Amino acid sequence: MTPVITAEQPGHDHGGRPPAAPAEGSAAAVAAGFAADWVADRDPVTWLQRLQAWCEPGLAQALATADPANVPASAVTGPPTKVDGSAEEGLRMRVDTDAGSLVLTMAATDGHWLVSGVDFVRRAS
Predict the structure, then answer these.
(1) Which CATH number does the domain housing residue 79 bear?
(2) Cα separation of 114 and 103, whole Å?
(3) Does residue 3 fall inside a structural domain?
């Protein structure tokens, strides 16, 4: 089989237009994956490597300075739910954990979702 070679710029379709915004449902899958990896491993190298797959580069750099031992949660307790936003503007998704809610800012990048921001709201005692 002969490989197909194209001069197309990454992230653009054959018409030279940027890709359409991804479906909001796929943002939930990315949020779920990020949340699962955020609580899963406390080894700093493994933790960062796993999270980088779900993140924009700027967030990945910021997480490189974080200590996963300070993650307050140890388990995801619910599915991602949309807080606000749209596929065109970006979304905020909430994922409940055993210690509170992880709030993720999601950005549509080159036709797919990536996590661009992280906040955590602790559960009231």
Answers:
(1) 3.10.450.540
(2) 13
(3) no
Burial of 111 (0-12, 13-18, 19+ CB in 10 A): middle
Q: Provide CB contacts within 8 A for 101, sequence distance 6+.
A: 94, 95, 120, 121, 123
The residues pairing with 102 across neighbouring beta strands, listed in sequence order, are 95, 120
| Tokens describing residue 8 | 């197309």
Is residue 9 in some structural domain? no
User: Model confidence over 16-29: pLDDT tens digits?
Assistant: 555 666 776 799 99
Whole-model pTM?
0.81
Residue 6 lies inside a defined structural domain of this protein: no
Q: How far apart are CA 68 and CA 37, in angstroms?
A: 11
